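Tip: read the tokens left to right.
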């Protein structure tokens, strides 16, 4: 499995169908080329960061009607259920993923829908709509705008749209055009513009990990380069080495949690909390 490099063709339905056909574990939606234990630790830190972000932004899951868009293998669906949501619906672009979600969560509704084309449940609204690690894979800007409008249409009055996505707040040090064709990293200014057009207001942007994630955001070119050096070294040394990953990841994950709680700064994905205007 390889990522489409910058400049190569990225066809989302084909790309995501191939991934879902190849496996049904956290790697499908996380880092498919890296050991499961690596993905487990990254997801665990991310979940902890998101729940802390929810607490800080006054977002509640308990007793809420929740929709998770781009559910993948269902990590967040499972978390929202365990956090006491009244009900959790979900959706994905890939029909195979949706069939598996229906089998895994028989009490929940799932729809196969491309969020850039349609709202998955056009006749319903939800207190909380989540879209986790999905929107940065919508690389076409017009489709991104349509996705935000479709998402906004699923949020009830007074409700929240919560997004997990890489977002540049401090400085963009990426090479022009990014490094792979299936990812785009947007600036806060672009997010603000697209949100306003969709009738949404950004309430909070909160880092969910300190350094345990793709290099995205840094206060200087050298800080970005250092993070990228670390991340490339880590990912290339654990690729195909489950035992090494299971030794290295626990202390790194603990360090990441400590760093995040001390500094509240993050070099990678952010939780973006949006409300309807
Ligand atoms: C990186 S995975 C994230 C999955 C899940 N949210 C998670 O964090 O574990 C991206 C998921 O979004 C789905 N997806 C990609 N483009 C989509 C679109 N336009 N509409 C709906 N789902 C999409 C993919 O099939 C895949 O399951």
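Filled-in amino acids:
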């Amino acid at each position: 499995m390889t990522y489409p490099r910058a400049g190569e063709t990225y066809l989302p339905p084909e790309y995501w169908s191939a991934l879902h056909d190849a496996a049904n574990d956290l790697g499908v939606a996380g880092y498919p080329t890296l050991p499961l234990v690596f993905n487990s630790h990254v997801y665990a830190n991310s979940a902890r960061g998101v729940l802390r972000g929810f607490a800080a932004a006054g977002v509640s899951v308990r007793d809420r009607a929740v929709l998770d868009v781009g559910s993948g293998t269902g990590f967040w669906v499972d978390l929202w259920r365990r956090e006491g949501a009244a009900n959790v619906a979900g959706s994905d672009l890939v029909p195979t993923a949706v069939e598996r979600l229906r089998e895994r969560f028989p009490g929940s509704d799932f729809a196969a829908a491309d969020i850039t084309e349609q709202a998955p449940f056009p006749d319903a609204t939800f207190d909380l709509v989540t879209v986790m690690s999905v929107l940065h894979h919508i690389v076409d800007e017009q489709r991104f705008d349509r996705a935000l409008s479709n998402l906004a249409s699923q949020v009830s009055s007074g409700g929240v749209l919560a997004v997990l996505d890489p977002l540049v707040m401090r400085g963009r040090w990426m090479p022009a055009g990014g490094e792979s064709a299936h990812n785009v990293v947007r600036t806060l200014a672009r997010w603000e513009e697209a949100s306003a057009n969709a009738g949404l207001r950004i309430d909070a942007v909160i880092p969910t990990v300190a350094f345990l994630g793709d290099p995205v955001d840094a206060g200087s070119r050298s800080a970005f380069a250092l993070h990228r050096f670390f991340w490339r070294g880590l990912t290339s040394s654990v690729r195909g080495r489950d035992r090494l990953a299971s030794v290295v990841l626990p202390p790194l994950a603990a360090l990441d949690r400590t760093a995040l709680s001390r500094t509240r700064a993050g070099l990678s994905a952010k939780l973006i909390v949006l409300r309807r205007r």
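The chain has a mean pLDDT of 93. The longest helix spans residues 36-57.
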